[in-house]
Amino acid sequence: MAHFLCLLFLLLPSATACDRCVHQSKVDYFSSDAPLSSGACGYGSLALSLGGGRLAAAVSSLYKQGAGCGACFQIRCKDPKLCSSTGSNVTLTDLNPNTQTDLVISSKAFMAMANQGMDQDVLKLGIVDVEYKRIPCQYTNQNLSVRVEDSSSNPNYLAIKLLYQGGQTEVTAIDVAQVGSPNWSFMSRNYGAVWDTSRVPTGALQFRFVVTSGLDGKWIWAKSVLPAEWKPGQIYDSGLQITDIAQESCSPCEDGTW
């Protein structure tokens, strides 16, 4: 327990970037979705099932060494003749190493910023001035799910990634234990959204997640997720959904109004 609390203390400060503030930047787009679906978060082809294919690669301050994977943002371009006031919602699936723009998004998301009938005109601009802010992710009738990665080997090695995380938080720690057991093993972030451990408990598995909720952190407990005979490549329903919104002490943009 002492190790877990120490880990929690060390990881939570990463959530103080004031994501809900409105940021000014430029946005470019990928002509193909391939870079976003093979991106640094590790979602692979499953990325296209997130956010309706409206995806984004983000700079390191938003990627947060993988903690920002799966985060949702609302983006709107600043030309009212071409673009709507609602803009486009995107899901972060990749790292953008180009610091000229905070975000590079899918062409589908880029065109979604446009007023009706103006999508091709917006696309021709290539790069546009935008404002954006983080928003809660919403997955209707879809629980948080755990995908067992292909590299896993029952019972010696387990690698997972989380899919369809709602709300506006980041997972900063994951523990795993046999269902009904108090003996938890911690998992480490391998890269992006992928977590792993070689200390795999036997039997059916439960998970507990630390998320950035409130000004501190919160445990989310999924009491039964993986069956004893879990298999690589399979997706398992956690039976719960994270809906929390992290509270940030942001000044001077406490409410992030547009």
Please give a quick description of this structure.
The protein contains 5 helices and 14 strands.
Structure, described:
InterPro entries: Expan_Lol_pI, Expansin/allergen_DPBB_dom, Expansin_CBD, Expansin_CBD_sf, LolPI, RlpA-like_DPBB, RlpA-like_sf. Pfam families: DPBB_1 (PF03330), Expansin_C (PF01357). Residues 38-142 form the Expansin-like EG45 domain. This protein has 258 residues and is mainly beta. The chain folds into two domains: 15-135, RlpA-like domain (Barwin-like endoglucanases, Beta Barrel), CATH 2.40.40.10; 145-237, Immunoglobulin-like. It has helices at 2-11, 34-37, 60-63, 107-111, 119-125; strands at 23-30, 55-58, 72-77, 88-95, 103-106, 128-135, 145-148, 158-163, 171-178, 185-191, 194-197, 205-211, 218-226, 235-237. An eight-stranded antiparallel beta sheet has the order 13-12-9-10-11-8-7-14, covered by helices on one side. Strands 1-5-2-4-3-6 form a six-stranded mixed barrel. A hairpin with a 6-residue loop joins strand 9 and strand 10 (185-191). Mean pLDDT is 89; it is low at 1-16.
